[in-house]
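Friendly challenge for the regulars: who can give me the structure tokens for this chain first? No prize, just bragging rights.
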Amino acid sequence: MLRTRAWVRRLAPLALPALWGGVAALWKLTCPLAHQEGTATRIATSAVFFTVGTGLVLGIRRGLARELKQVRAVAQAAQQVLLRPLPPRLDGLSVAAAQLSVARGAAVGGDLYEAVATPHGVRIVIGDVRGHGLAALGAVAAVLGSFREAAHDEPELGGVLRRLDRALGRHLRERAREEHPAVGGWDPDSPVAEEFVTVLLLEIRRDGAVLALNCGHPWPYQLGSRTEQVVAGETLPPLGAFPLPDELPVHRCVTLPPGEALFLHTDGAEDARDASGRFFRLRDVLDQALREAPVPPAALIHRVHAALLRHTGGRLTDDVALMVVRNDRRDDRRHDCRHDRSRVPAQSADPGPRRTRPAPSNR
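First reply, four minutes later:
Bragging rights claimed.
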């Protein structure tokens, strides 16, 4: 029944052209005027069949356009579930992110990002799957799905990373079985064995301390009075390339004061080249944006994207993901003072006339 209805909907735009075609064929076969030899008759016959043909083409085109629109809507909804838009604010932090995919018509590719507020702080992941485009979506889904659960469940950042590693391992084993069903296990010659994911995990605590675990991913830039790239020790190998070590070195890389931001990116940004082979100078673009005026996170993302597309002429060779996280917790100190009796209460900007209270009596 459902298939019959689907076929009826698809063939409905062709009903009127088909009716016109039947009338034209009947007129050609039965009408004596259609068998006369003459210029007027030939013109009339040609006009009838041209109208029928045009109607058929337009009907087919209209049906295909409607079906394509529906497919795009479904694909867009699936992409938004996979790489959902981030909320503009998370626990006092302003957040913005976006991605450029090399796959035409795709909103997501081989890059991933996510940010969630947890009891342990705001936890952030940004990563890059080896390869790009729609072929990498399976690994993106495995890593993001695991992070969204582990970020809340695991008290330590190292536990989150191990959960991501196990989720990616399961995904790679399942793909290996699908590509080599006769083997029944892991095949080292499989292309899946060469798939890995670079990952940067961050945890931003209430005091602005930023903890990090880096698995082969570019370090972020800290945007304050000047632009500086954060470097906190050696990085671990990408997930999927080698097993994780027994001890995971969680680095306290920076402290993010109120008003300052972190700019996270995948290597597709700094590896992008123009027609002459020159690399995109991401740090210079960030410096210029900071010199002009304080730029909101979403506006900074838009500016870097525009500069990247100008540099490459719109011809990207790798997916690019960008994220900005700014500390807007400006009222934390006053909030703490109001709830801590051992501290001096905050004064207002215009105290006005002071009132002197009488000294307490010793009676």
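The longest helix spans residues 39-82. The chain has nine helices and eleven strands. Your move, everyone else.
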